[in-house]
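Fold sample X.
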Amino acid sequence: MKRLLNYAFIASTTIRSSSSLLISKLSSSPLKMSGEKSLSMLPELTVYDMDACLWDQEMYTMSALPDRKVMGDLNGRGEGVIGVMSGGDKISLHKGSLVSLQEHFDGKYPGMKVALASSADTPFAEKVGRKALKMLEVVPGVTVWDILMRDWDGVDVNQIGRQPPLSSNKSKTHFPFLREKTGIRYDRMLFFDDCNWGDHCLMVEQNCKEEDTGKGPVTVRTPSGLGEREWRLGLKLYAQRNGKQN
């Protein structure tokens, strides 16, 4: 009996070791997704502008730090914080922002992380934005900020504001800092920006390129805010561009 137990222990240990090795290999291999999409067809980093893109307000026009929550339906996922009040103004996520963050939270895009690049005009505007991020929910009980922190193990890699060392030119400061802090190449990024106060998408495309490929982030302009159509378009454009590279 003792010999049988020893054999069982050895077999169990061998199976666990083999399973651990397989899991390790799978997590580091470029697996195929459902529909035969390679992980390389997905962005490694999706970057959102905040004002008039991620959400429906411009932070520099807000009069107070958000202090009240507006409850409602989170796209069929239950009741949560769908808005926050800054004085008499309500700040809410655009539909495409909410959908994209919910899908990301659900793990629909393996290997993808998210971050922010916002040239908020003043230090107060930055404070308003950061407070809103910590209040607005993606699913009940989980805020936008929670997801940002989850992706980076609690490290704030986001580039918000234009106070030095940042500037109003995202291609000169925000994106170089994002690349440095995340270690993700420009040509593995997807960027959404309303571009209503300057064509940040064009500037990022022109100034943030990898030397070996000559390519930078795939960009999508969202002049009316990030809708679900723009979100799907961004993923499609990224996959098409990378499909040509592979």
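Fold sample Y, listed below.
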Amino acid sequence: MTSSLETTRAELGLVVAYLNKAEARDKICRAIQYGSKFLSDGQPGTAQNVDKTTSLARKVFRLFKFVNDLHALISPVPKGTPLPLALLGKSKNALLSTFLFLDQIVWLGRTGIYKNKERAELLGRIALFCWMGSSACTSLVEIGELGRLSASIKKLEKEIGNKDKHHNEEYRAKLKRSNERSLALIKAGMDFVVAFGLLQLAPKKVTPRVTGAFGFASSLISCYQLLPSHPKSKTV
């Protein structure tokens, strides 16, 4: 009974730790937003109202978040990073920081604090183009890093030889990083489609329902990526 209670308490502790993250709450709201967009398919009704109100509420979570990517932009790149990947990474930081900064002006416009609605809408479109560009840069960075990891894993496999590679800690760590980057690549590709859809660059092909489906799937990936690590069980 005590062991079961301790396990339940530990599991609830993980849930509390997860929900205490502003980023996690934002991604849950994002899943609700794009799930509603998928259901509404751009048609007036309850689902569209949920989409719009959740979209506005999420902007509060992102206030001053542009500072994170601004800090990453001026921080040195890890040693050994090829110049093309370093430039792509910095471009991603610059574009994402710009998107988050302009998104604050959009929020001010929608709340009525910023009175120039036309300019707010224009800045909103520019912000979405920046987000689409940052997603493209992220995709290219992940492809490049996956290539480097693949070459590193093959080299390590040759060094290990006939031994069981899954017992090698370095091999398992690199394989884990490869899986994480593959998931990040999929998410970046989905985000690119979402930005494309929100900009309505091809409204007949990338409909609100398609945008909602990709946004919902991308949000679930984000929620998964933010999950806290499960504490390892103690062995006696």
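Sample Y note: The two ends are 19 Å apart (CA to CA).
Also: The mean pLDDT is 90.
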